[in-house]
Design a protein that fits this description.
741 residues, mainly beta, Methylamine Dehydrogenase, Chain H, 2 domains, 5-stranded antiparallel β-sheet, 5-stranded mixed β-sheet, 1 helix, 1% helix, 39% strand
């Protein structure tokens, strides 16, 4: 599971970047910038919370502060950073203030704490290094992430690219806490001498940066010496460098070579024994590793010792090759010679943690006697009988004040133990789901059903606890691509996605239990796309889009998926929309031509409706207003909002909206004759979340500068039973729901 985690975000391709950076911008969460205050529509105070799922994304790093009991930080590949409150046993998100234009900064490449100044925290942000992504930034805080100052870089960082579980790539210099080091993927080593306010290339660092590869993968302090790991070695050249004066760098003598030590992944220093432990793999991970090792450097003597707990390459219990690399490493601050390391990408035998109390001479696998309790987040079974101990284990931390408190990240959670035997998710408050579809049913137990990347479809019987049913099963979906409910028969729900046995399913009890369609079109195996059902659930319309963008003809079923037939008049790949009142009517929008297509015979044939609408951009959303036939709204990325009241024959532009990305409806306000409308868009100068109670004549902003969550353009819906409640899909911060304060 989760081997395709990054594919549920935006595509990851090779990229290049420039040199260093210098713009400093202060930001205080919750305080509007002056220019926005003058032009933004007056807002209504809202309380925003996560609809609880619990984790679900890749935890790429965890840091306990070495000098403050109970203080820790976590980073994720696309969902920001968090601070741990040990008393409340809860994570607090730290960068939800990142707005629409800063969506690329929700990925945290690295983080650093200052041992001598406990309130200082630094984050290196940037999700992708491709040309279409913005440059990275460094945030610095003097109050543990409550407020920030920001420096924009002229280089790109890649928190959701290969190697994102390595590190940390950011370090406070042990000799001078005003000096920071930042390792980049394609631009070498950067240095700041003013606590991250300005950055420049570090002189004298030997390796040559390139437009591809990993660059500097880790930075660690060992006493007054700084070590830097280099991820672009071929296995025969140096990949570990050090400086003792902050100016002169040299390759560490005698370092291990060979495939199993090709890429240094993480390192940790035992100050009691003066030993530096380094984990290695033959690829940066989290995928693609098949070999690895663990080595110890005696800092005083310069002697290297291999202390690998188990050699990759044997035979697994299922007869396959037992291949893996090594990932996380943590030392016990209270017990000299006690170290924990993690395997990574060990799928057949399942990844584990190895622990030694004698400096690596002998090791014990903590997985072998582990008792896992995932009752708080039942989705972690992924439809199996029991959960896995871990996968993608590269984040690993050991509490410096409690030798029995260990945490390790996976592709979906953060497990913790306080006795080395009993493990449970230590994840409260940390939500990293990439959400794609939302339904708020008009009746039934659940107020919300969601479709997401990696964890399929969830039935939210409570908003304040992880769904008790876990992931929807029969089939289990890795990623959901479609979710729809019959408007006049809400007990009938359908879903599509990447499944374990069939890529489409239906429910007759409102989404609580599921069954696969009796049959599916052949193309559904490789390209499951959005799906719709008409108002009474008698017709299914399924479209197909391959991950490479290839679009295929839609298919229609009138027998609950037992048989399917091609709809040749339907524009390939377009998203189907059912009329909420008339079972005979479907609609869709062809983004290539700016044309609406309409069916009045239950999706059997489609004819052109309105033409001449904006085209050429995939960021279009066509939605139907509930309880009304033919009342359609079209969100167009840079061209505002359009409405049709005649079933798609004609559209008029809504003058109150400058840009619209996604639109949804909820219960009408008291005395209002039209549903409340919720929108992510721009009415004047800022992209934000808005509500209209008067049919889009006026809008009120309902989020604030402290609650923006980067990219939020995939789904939004109001609650048909609670006026003012809105559910919002984010690309990495789970499902946010807001209610008037």
């Amino acid at each position: 599971m989760h081997a395709s985690h990054s594919l549920s975000r935006r595509a990851v391709l090779a990229g290049t970047a420039a040199a260093a950076a210098l713009t400093t911008v202060p930001f205080l969460p919750g305080r509007a910038h002056a220019a926005e205050t003058a032009t933004t529509v007056a807002g209504q105070a809202y309380r925003w919370r996560n609809a609880v799922i619990g984790g679900t994304g890749f935890i790429t790093g965890v840091l306990f502060h070495p000098c403050v009991r109970g203080l820790a930080y976590a980073r994720t590949d696309i969902g920001g950073a968090y601070r741990w409150d040990d008393g409340a046993a809860h994570w607090t998100p730290l960068i939800d203030h990142m707005g629409w234009d800063d969506w690329n900064l929700l990925g945290v490449e690295a983080m650093a704490v200052d041992p001598t100044h406990p309130d200082r925290l630094y984050l290196a942000l940037g999700t992708y290094t491709q040309s279409w992504a913005g440059n990275g930034a460094v945030l610095r805080s003097e109050d543990r992430g409550a407020t920030w100052k920001r420096t924009d870089l002229s280089v790109k960082l890649g928190a959701n690219e290969d190697g994102r579980g390595a590190g940390e790539r950011l370090l406070v210099d042990p000799r001078n806490s005003d000096t920071l080091w930042l390792g980049t993927r394609h631009d070498g080593l950067l240095k700041s001498t003013d606590r991250g306010a300005t950055w420049a290339a570090a002189p004298g660092f030997p390796p040559s940066p390139s437009a591809s590869g990993q660059g500097v993968v880790l930075l660690v302090a060992a006493g007054r010496t700084v070590y830097a790991g280099w991820g672009d070695s071929d296995g025969s050249s140096a990949n570990l460098y050090r400086t003792s004066d902050g100016t002169t760098w040299q390759a560490v003598p005698g370092q291990p070579t060979g495939t199993a030590a090709k890429v240094p992944i993480r390192a940790a220093y035992d100050c009691h024994t003066r030993a530096l432990y380094v984990t290695y793999a033959n690829a940066p991970g989290p995928n693609g590793q098949s070999d690895g090792s663990v080595h110890k450097l005696h800092a005083t003597s310069g002697k290297w010792t291999e202390v690998t707990p188990a050699k990759p390459g044997g035979t697994a219990s299922d007869g396959s090759a037992d291949t893996f690399g090594y990932g996380g490493v943590a030392v016990d601050a209270r017990r000299p010679g006690t170290v924990v390391v993690s395997t990574n990408n060990r799928w057949a035998e399942v990844d584990t943690l190895y622990r030694t109390t004698d400096g690596g001479r002998t090791w014990t696998s903590l997985k072998d006697k582990a008792v896992l309790d995932v009752s708080e987040t039942p989705f972690l079974t992924f439809g199996a009988d029991k959960p896995k101990f871990g996968w993608w284990i590269q984040a690993l931390a050991l509490d410096p004040y409690d030798s029995l408190h260990i945490v390790h990240g996976t592709g979906a959670t953060l497990y913790g133990t306080r006795d080395l035997t009993h493990w449970a998710p230590q994840i409260r408050g940390l939500e990293e789901t990439a959400v794609r579809q939302l339904i708020s049913p008009p009746t039934g137990t659940a107020h919300l059903i969601s479709g997401s990347g990696d964890i399929g479809v969830l039935y939210h019987d409570r908003l304040t606890a992880s769904p008790s049913r876990g992931m929807s099963t029969n089939p289990v979906f890795g990623t959901a691509t479609g979710l729809a409910q019959a408007a006049r028969k809400p007990s009938y729900v359908v879903r599509s996605g990447w499944g374990d046995h069939g890529n489409g399913a239906y429910s007759d009890d409102g989404g609580q239990t599921w069954a696969p369609f009796p049959a599916q079109p052949a193309i559904a195996k490789d390209a499951p796309g959005p799906i719709a059902t008409n108002a009474d659930g008698s017709v299914l319309l399924w479209t197909f889009v391959h991950w490479d963008g290839t679009r295929y003809p839609a298919q229609r079923s009138t027998d609950n998926g037992a048989t399917w037939s091609e709809v040749s008049s339907y524009p390939k790949g377009a998203t189907p929309v059912a009329d909420p009142v008339d079972p005979a009517r479907f609609y869709t929008f062809d983004t290539d031509t700016g044309t609406v297509y309409v069916s009045s015979d239950g999706g059997l044939t489609f004819a052109k409706g309105a033409t001449g609408l904006p085209s050429g951009d995939t960021q279009f959303k066509l939605v139907a207003a509930p309880g009304r036939s033919g009342d359609l709204w079209l969100s167009t990325k840079g061209n505002g909002l359009y409405r049709s009241t005649d079933g798609g024959a004609g559209f008029s532009k809504v003058s109150s909206c400058r840009a619209s990305y996604v639109l949804g409806f909820g219960k009408a306000a008291d005395g209002a004759g039209y549903p409340a409308i919720y929108q992510v868009g721009s009415t004047q100068s800022i992209t934000a979340v808005f509500r209209s109670d008067d049919e889009a004549k006026t809008w009120v902003r309902i989020n604030d500068d402290a609650h923006q969550w980067g990219y939020i353009g995939d789904a939004i819906t109001g609650d048909p039973r609670v006026h003012g409640r809105v559910y919002l899909a984010t690309n990495g911060r789970g499902i946010q729901y807001g209610e008037p304060a």
